[in-house]
Design brief:
The complex is a heterodimer of chains A (276) and B (289).
Chain A lengths: L7 H15 L1 H23 L3 H15 L2 H17 L2 H31 L1 H16 L6 H8 L3 H25 L3 H9 L4 H30 L1 H5 L5 H11 L3 H27 L3
Helix pairs in contact in A: 2-5, 2-8, 3-4, 4-13, 5-6, 5-8, 5-10, 5-12, 6-8, 7-8, 8-10, 9-10, 10-13, 12-13
Chain B lengths: L1 H21 L8 E6 L3 H16 L4 E6 L2 H9 L5 E6 L4 H6 L4 E18 L20 E3 L6 H13 L6 E3 L3 H13 L6 E5 L2 H5 L2 E3 L12 E8 L2 H4 L1 H9 L4 H13 L4 H11 L1 H5 L6
Parallel strand pairs in B: 1-2, 1-3, 5-6
Antiparallel strand pairs in B: 3-9, 4-7, 4-8, 4-9
The chains are: A mainly alpha (276), B alpha/beta (289).
Chain lengths: 276, 289
């Protein structure tokens, strides 16, 4: 007895086709928004001379993290500049920042909502699992169908991959707020809005920032994959290195990604711990 | 204090973002959006096309590097003008799938070869000798990405036709295949890989294609074509004509690829120089209006 194959893949394909046929306007306006955000970020990051930008980034590292991180930043960024990957690095940084900004814009409110409602939590959780575990390559073709080639589908694919921790850890953070704080806030007459902004969010902030940190790291891990759909930046340099076995290019661009990753990780991590 | 500063910085950032986001991009007339794959020959002649289009014809050129499938998809969807790397015999799936949305812009290079290749020191010359020497190759053909054209053809046609039983096709990826090849060459070990030409492996190492039996010819010679979106000839007739005119001989393409490979400068600069040194080649490409 043979059971006919369930057309899972075909159903996905027709869904995607339906989307491209009917929602073009929606995708276009999303695409335009993402393009504007990207253009703004890239403009800002490439506006100052690289050396001035290195000073600014180092100052940021010094101010948020420890002196060691600042020293690492200045040396690492100078190395990137010296190897000739400055523009590519700033392009990648703007791609990562755009994805992360949008991820937080969507993820934090969604996280708050799913902390407040068990029903939402039950719906959101499997979707997040799905987003995070489906191999990232699978997103590439729908991303291209919806958003053409280039940086925009790169941001979208990165967004899908990096959004889950922002939602998860926001929800977790708020659910972990001790009930005493809850009761105290309510007994002092807080309305729900005050409860959220004056009590719950400040207490949950370290956990939320840990989510931000993870979101940034996941976004960086998509840099090379999104290079396959024309997102450019360091990802393209790495791909160039590996498709032509130019070990030098692959390694230099790879090292640049690592430097960027360590910088972003340390800076966001120190935001988590300081200021409490 | 830190928090206020952070808020201030974010506010300033967002403000600047909106300002710069609002400026519509000014487009100066003629534009060309070309998609290429990060393969040595395509990188070389696509940047040459960029040089000629910008310097000689006043175009605003945007190059996008992408993988093969997204590349075809983007051009078929009409968001980009041309895909610069069509190997018809290997990419038939994509061409069939998007047959209504794509149009061929002719060949840019003729005489591509595909097949199984070995380093020159390997003492067999024919595909039919593979089976009896399977052990020396470790029992496998080192392949590239599962699903690539060269892989399908090897699996579906070559292996049954030559009755290869003791040697299996192993899928990996282009980079992994070349890395395995580099390692084998260094140690003078026997290796057989799925190969195609033009490819830098033939320049870097002494390689040979294994010959086919006369009655079992699986691999023919082919061409690299440029593929445009279906309405390119109506929208941008001059660009379409230019892409149709583009053609490089083996000697010209090799010369360009070697220069790109050996130079420390970026590809655009090298391509521009090559253009200036080879005016007679590129002058034929520019459409006479």
């Amino acid at each position: 007895m043979t059971i006919p194959k369930i057309p899972v893949g075909e159903m996905f394909e027709s869904l995607i086709n339906w989307f491209t046929d009917n929602l073009e306007m929606v995708f276009d306006s999303i695409g335009n928004t993402v393009t504007a955000i990207l253009a703004g970020l890239k403009f800002l990051l490439l506006l100052p001379h690289p050396l001035l930008m290195i000073v600014l980034l180092t100052a940021l590292a010094w101010w948020t993290a420890k002196r060691g991180v600042a020293i690492f930043t200045v040396l690492g960024m100078l190395l990137i500049y010296n190897m000739g990957y400055w523009t590519a690095t700033m392009e990648t940084l703007s791609l990562v920042l755009a994805s992360v900004l949008i991820a937080l814009f969507i993820g934090v409110p969604l996280g708050i909502w799913s902390a407040k409602s068990d029903v939402v939590e039950r719906i959101v959780r499997p979707v997040l699992d799905f987003m995070q575990t489906l191999p990232a390559f699978v997103y590439l073709i729908p991303a291209v169908l919806f958003f053409k080639l280039g940086e925009v589908p790169g941001v979208i694919a990165t967004l899908i991959f990096s959004l889950p921790p922002a939602v998860r850890l926001t929800s977790l953070g708020i659910r972990q707020v001790p009930s005493e704080i809850h009761e105290a806030a309510i007994s002092f007459g807080s309305n729900p809005r005050q409860l959220l902004f004056k009590a719950e969010l400040p207490v949950a902030l370290p956990t939320i920032m840990a989510g931000v940190n993870q979101t940034i790291m996941l976004a960086l891990s998509m840099v090379v994959i999104s290079g396959m759909i024309g997102a450019g930046g360091l990802g393209n340099e790495v791909l160039k290195g590996i498709t032509q076995l130019k070990i030098d290019i692959g390694f230099e661009a790879g090292i640049s990604i690592v430097i960027l990753a360590i910088f972003l990780d340390r800076v966001t991590q120190s935001l988590t711990h300081s200021d409490q | 204090m830190k928090k206020q500063l952070l808020i201030l910085a974010t506010g300033l950032g967002l403000g600047a973002l909106m300002l710069s986001g609002c400026n519509p991009q000014t487009v100066s007339g003629k534009t060309a959006e070309l998609v290429y794959v990060n393969w040595a020959e395509g990188v070389a002649y696509t940047h040459l096309a960029e040089a000629v289009l910008t310097e000689k014809m006043g175009y605003d050129v945007k190059l996008t590097a992408a993988d093969v499938a997204p590349g075809y998809t983007a051009v078929a969807q009409g968001s980009h003008d041309a895909f610069m790397e069509c190997w018809r015999e290997l990419h038939q799936d994509y061409l069939d799938r998007y047959s209504d949305d794509l149009v061929s812009l002719g060949t840019i290079y003729e005489g591509t070869e595909t097949g199984l290749a070995v380093p020159a020191y390997v003492t067999i010359d024919k595909i039919s000798e593979l089976e009896e020497n399977a052990d020396k190759f470790g029992g496998h053909i080192t392949g590239i990405d599962a699903g690539a054209g060269v892989m399908k053809k090897t699996e579906d046609e070559l292996i049954p036709a030559y009755g290869l039983k003791s040697i299996k096709l192993m899928a990996s990826s282009g980079p992994a295949m070349t890395a395995a090849l580099a390692d084998a060459v260094k140690n003078k070990e026997w290796i057989v890989v799925t190969a195609w030409k033009p490819h830098w492996m033939f320049g870097r190492w002494d390689m040979k294609f294994l010959e086919q039996d006369d009655d079992q010819v699986i691999w023919g010679k082919g061409n690299i074509e440029l593929i445009g979106r279906a309405d390119l000839e109506e929208d941008k007739p001059e660009l379409a004509q230019f892409l149709k005119n583009m053609y490089l001989t083996d000697a010209e393409l090799s010369d360009l690829m070697v220069k790109v490979n050996d130079s420390d400068e970026d590809v655009s600069t090298v391509a521009k120089k090559w253009m200036q040194e080879n005016e007679e080649v590129i002058s034929d490409w520019i459409p006479q209006s």
